[in-house]
């Protein structure tokens, strides 16, 4: 039966824009966050798009699309679109992992999911990652060699996987499905996509939600290590201010510094069970691995709560818990992110805009991460080709479209000041910051209700800010049985 207000339940072939190359047909399917996750009923299809939009004769890419139809038989005409982070994560996988957070919106609106070109099921641009590179054995020479090999294996021209082209794909999908406009939710890198789509297609954009904000004018990379250091300093300061945490882990900040210095001089070999196979393997764990572990664990309040315990255990010679957590987090990230698409974005939209004189190398060297992250990005982009970028891409978004900007005060990569920067030219903007929250707020406390109300009314409701700011934050773990009651 054809539902009123939307065309997405039909399997009729629909005309698409003149830039497209084919038609979009949706059929019943199930989507999920991975093999071990439950499936979600949806309607799926692919839209054929030219690899190079300026060349209709270029190879064709299949863009994967999924629509989770609204529960209401007479839904609102404008769906919610999820734009994933990374860069390199697919929107379908991301939504499937956090679908419950959007249940309220899903009640009256379709959820439109488009795996951005180069991610998920849309001509995923990836290469198998060398184990030594994953384990943190970084060198410029190794990175350059790996990137040359990666480029040789790619099935598509990596230049045409940038944000400037991806937003054209999304607009083609909107036209193909007949939606009058879109409500955009972007997280992390997805906030960059959302802002550029709204800039390029303002008449197609109804509301914008930016979660973990990346301002268009900012080049990501030079501040990653220093922002991570600020986050870790704040975590250890919170522990010191918490009587139980301070008693259990006295002077944890000094213990972390001592651990970093020890592993810098003498990396250790740690036997741990592989997260997937369960087989015990030996892992080399030095300063680079420590930096990667601590940075990744600082993203979420749940893993933040474990950091003092994990650091204290490692400082006392028990490295297994920290190494095991690091392996699980890193494996999840490696599986989710498409390396080639990540590089296409960073080497077009970030690294070329670095200003060497403006980079505080002393602060980088003093951070627990050091300059390795920056050196790795520069090594990658010395090989990786840059692609098309719109002339106004790096300009701040200036619009009257209602925009909600979300931040966590403990976010180690997109701090609240990034949201402040992005909001300066927004004429209808609301900013919310979660105290001691990490990267990404959509699953925090009453945020699902706030998001639903914002999309419905195009503004915040009374008490929304207070509700969010009082959201639960996981207490510090004092031992491995969990946080104290």
Topology, please?
Elements: E1 27-31, E2 40-50, E3 60-68, E4 80-83, H1 91-98, H2 103-108, E5 111-114, H3 131-134, H4 140-153, H5 163-177, E6 182-187, H6 189-200, E7 205-211, H7 224-241, H8 243-248, H9 252-265, E8 268-273, E9 280-285, H10 287-297, H11 301-304, H12 307-315, H13 320-336, H14 339-349, H15 361-366, H16 372-381, E10 403-408, H17 416-423, E11 429-434, H18 447-457, H19 464-469, E12 477-479, E13 482-483
Parallel strand pairs: 4-5, 4-6, 6-7, 7-10, 10-11
Antiparallel strand pairs: 1-2, 2-3, 3-5, 8-9, 12-13
Helix pairs in contact: 4-16, 5-6, 9-10, 9-12, 10-13
Key attributes of the depicted protein:
disordered N terminus, 19 helices, alpha/beta, Rossmann fold, nine-stranded mixed β-sheet, 485 residues, 15% strand, two-stranded antiparallel ribbon
Number of separate strands: 13
Sequence of strands across the biggest β-sheet: 1-2-3-5-4-6-7-10-11
Return the average pLDDT rounded to an integer: 90
SS-derived structural category: alpha/beta
CATH superfamily membership of the domain at 27-125 and 161-219 and 396-469, which one? Answer: Alpha/Beta hydrolase fold, catalytic domain
What is the CATH fold-level name of the domain at 27-125 and 161-219 and 396-469? Rossmann fold
Rg over CA atoms, rounded to whole Å, is 22 Å
Stretches where pLDDT is under 50 for at least 5 consecutive residues are: 1-22, 131-136
Give the CA-based shape. Answer: globular
Largest sheet: number of strands, sense, barrel closure: 9 strands, mixed
Name of the CATH architecture of the domain at 27-125 and 161-219 and 396-469: 3-Layer(aba) Sandwich
The first-level CATH class of the domain at 27-125 and 161-219 and 396-469 is given as Alpha Beta
Helix count?
19
Quote the beta fraction: 15-25%
Question: Between the first and last Cα atoms, what is the distance in angstroms?
Answer: 52 Å
User: Percent range for helical residues?
Assistant: 25-40%
